[in-house]
Design goal:
350 residues, alpha/beta, 6-stranded parallel beta sheet, two-stranded antiparallel ribbon, 9 helices, 12 strands
Length: 350
């Protein structure tokens, strides 16, 4: 189906879909009414009748990542990264309403005491570690990074030694992959918090799509296991505990569901982490099943890298993962993944 015009937004001309508003919560009843009128005007058919099944996978389009007020805002180098990305994502959805069959949205979902938060760690003197830093296996061995003994009773046999062995094994496994090392993030996406929810503009677009096409818009929860990171939507970073017991498992049902589509389209935050590892895992699964990589589409202008401003030095960045994103994009393209953009017509994407 050809690209559709954009429906009128409810915000000012500079931000008609209110992509930058923390407090925006669309009224589902009003969205349903508008979608029904749009369906009639443009002769939209039920998604179940689509000849080609195209799934849009939105990775972690949550307030904490996508808005300035968020705990881990992904501003990119420009400072407006995720806000502008969100605007492009919703425009892509509206213009391709007739070309998308399903929209799935992952939600990064955390509790206060998890291995990638500073609250989980203390130094040799018992002082909590700072965020935006790595924790290395060598530091655990030396005793300069210690899993908080106050948390030991929640895990394994309830002893501080069990937790020390587990975190040491975890960091060793991470480092052995060569992908990255354990990184401590500021608290974000706590279950039950406002920051955990989808940005209002994205919520509105997925509801509009669902009502207009009679389509499914599933929510995918990830990241609740306190002892492993879960960047990829498909699987945690480590599957086995130090004592050989299962730590977590891949989401095989989700993998099968996604790879059963004729096209999987990926957008979201952050390009340097959750999007990157989701695409990597999807590509690896496709290659293992002899599925052409060309069925995987990445919306390059609908995601940004983590780039943290240095408050002590204006204009400088404390952390910048942009080069990792650029390298990943090159690698995906070389592997046959289609690098698309928000203004594209997805009617022939398979």
């Amino acid at each position: 189906m050809a690209l559709l015009p954009l429906p009128a937004g409810t915000g000012p001309n500079s931000d008609p879909y209110r992509s930058g508003e923390w407090s925006y919560n669309p009224d589902p009843n009003q969205v349903a009414i508008a979608a029904a009128e749009w369906r009639s005007r443009h002769n939209l058919t039920p998604a179940t009748g689509d000849e080609a099944r195209r799934v849009l996978l939105l990775v972690d389009e949550q307030r904490d990542f996508c808005l300035r007020e968020g705990a881990l805002y992904v501003g990119g180098r420009s400072g407006r990264g995720a806000i502008e990305d969100t605007d492009r994502v919703v425009r892509f959805i509206y213009r391709n309403l007739g070309n998308l069959t399903e929209i799935a949205s992952s939600l990064d979902s955390h509790t206060p005491q998890q291995i990638f938060f500073s609250s989980f760690w203390v130094d040799g003197s018992g002082r909590q570690l700072d965020g935006y830093r790595e924790v290395l296996a060598s530091e655990i061995e030396a005793g300069s990074a210690v899993p908080n003994p106050a948390l030991a009773g929640w895990f394994g046999d309830g002893t501080a030694e069990w937790l020390r062995r587990q975190t040491l094994d975890y960091c060793r496994r991470l480092e052995a992959t060569g992908k990255y090392r354990l990184y401590l993030w500021p608290p974000h996406c706590f279950l039950g918090s406002e920051g955990h929810g989808l940005v209002g503009a994205v919520q509105e677009a997925r509801l509009f799509f669902g009502y207009a096409r009679g389509a499914e818009t599933p929510i995918l929860i990830k990241g609740t296991n306190p002892l492993t990171e879960y960047y990829s939507v498909l699987a945690p970073e480590v599957l086995v505990r130090h004592d050989g017991e299962e730590l977590d498992r891949s989401n095989q049902a989700l993998i099968d569901w996604l790879l059963g589509a004729d096209a999987v389209i990926v957008a979201g935050q952050a390009a340097s982490h959750c999007v990157r590892y989701t695409v990597d895992d999807l590509l690896a699964e496709m290659q293992s099943r002899d599925i052409p990589a060309s069925r995987l589409h990445v919306l390059a202008d609908c995601m940004s890298a983590v780039a943290v401003p240095d408050t002590a030095t204006p204009g400088e960045l404390l952390v910048d993962f942009t080069p990792e994103v650029e390298a990943a994009m090159t690698g995906w393209q070389e592997a046959g993944v289609h690098i698309g953009h928000s203004g594209d017509d997805a009617s022939d994407w398979v």
